[in-house]
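Researcher: Final request for today, and then I'll write up notes for the group meeting. The sequence and the SMILES for flavin mononucleotide follow.
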Amino acid sequence: MTDFHDLIVNRRSIRKYTADEVSAEDVKTLMEAALMAPTSKSSRPWQFVLVEDSAKLEALSKCKEHGAGPIAGCALAIIVAADVEKSDPWIEDASIAATYIQLQAADLGLGSCWIQVRGRYTVNDLESETYVQNLLEMPDTIVPVCIITIGRKAEERKPQAVEKLQWEKVHIGTWTER
Ligand SMILES: Cc1cc2nc3c(=O)[nH]c(=O)nc-3n(C[C@H](O)[C@H](O)[C@H](O)COP(=O)(O)O)c2cc1C
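Model: Predicted protein-flavin mononucleotide complex:
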């Protein structure tokens, strides 16, 4: 268990992974974290699809024209989706669960990256949500928000530059232009 603030400082998006699998124990820990994420009215509208099959990962990496490449090389892709009929803030609910997965992955020493799906398009102009739903045989009402890639790190990233944080975006008491 790392100090939480150190974990936040050191977590970076990792897009290159070794060929190692993610252990069943680590997968369970990741999903436990996701299933404990807070949701509006405790509605828990999320659904998660776990993919390890390399052909499926390759296909998922084509879910949008740019920025989905890391899926092809990861050990585990977690499709974070939500039932749009269960909660109006389903995007927020799914996003918080995705963030929990990323922070839990960092605590396990695993690399992860958020790959945006919602609102994106494939090279053939198909909605990325539909592409992923079709590929994974998901119902129409279960809409993918993002895919979290997971794997052992094959790249090192520097920690966050704490000295460069945008403190001008913090307004005390009332809005102040800076
Ligand atoms: C909503 C959201 C969408 C993102 N989409 C992608 C993506 O599609 N592909 C990708 O490689 N990274 C994606 N990222 C990762 C960001 O590029 C990354 O978090 C950002 O550059 C800051 O870097 P850091 O995570 O290392 O601090 C996304 C992150 C967020 C929060």
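Model: The mean pLDDT is 97. The radius of gyration is 17 Å.
Researcher: Thanks, that's everything.
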